[in-house]
Amino acid sequence: MTFTDTEPAPGRAAWLRQLADLAQLYGWRVYDFGEEYEPDLLLLRRPRLIWVFAEPLRGRLSQARLDAFVELRACRQEAGVWRPDDLEKIERILE
User: Fold this and answer.
1) Cα 44 to chain center, whole Å?
2) pTM for this entry
3) Is 1 inside a domain boundary?
4) Residue 43 in contact with residue 19, Cβ under 8 Å?
5) Is 88 within the bounds of a domain?
6) How far are the Cα atoms of 67, 83, 88 from residue 72, in angstroms, in the given order?
7) Cβ–Cβ < 8 Å for 38, 71
8) 4 is a domain residue
9) What is the number of structural domains in the chain?
10) What digits encode the pLDDT tens for the residues 29-60?
11) Would you place residue 13 in the very low, low, confident or very high pLDDT band (cuts 50, 70, 90)?
12) What is the extent of the structural domain holding 85?
């Protein structure tokens, strides 16, 4: 018996791969920094540059990732925390 009709949310690695694939589909250059760095992805397509922090549905930013996010925003950089629930919004951003 299931209590939901939706598929389970992807794990962090799968979500990150899905975001990278989607961005490339829309013509963005994707730079994946791996798990050792605070932002997960840098997306580049003239005239925009977007720093992406990929988080699963219930994931929270670590303090280091939150600090990096705040610093990027303070430097007037476009940065976002992207979760699977925001997929439609993410697609509009990438169009």
Assistant:
1) 13
2) 0.86
3) no
4) no
5) yes
6) 9, 19, 24
7) no
8) no
9) 1
10) 999 987 667 899 999 999 999 999 999 877 78
11) confident
12) 28-94
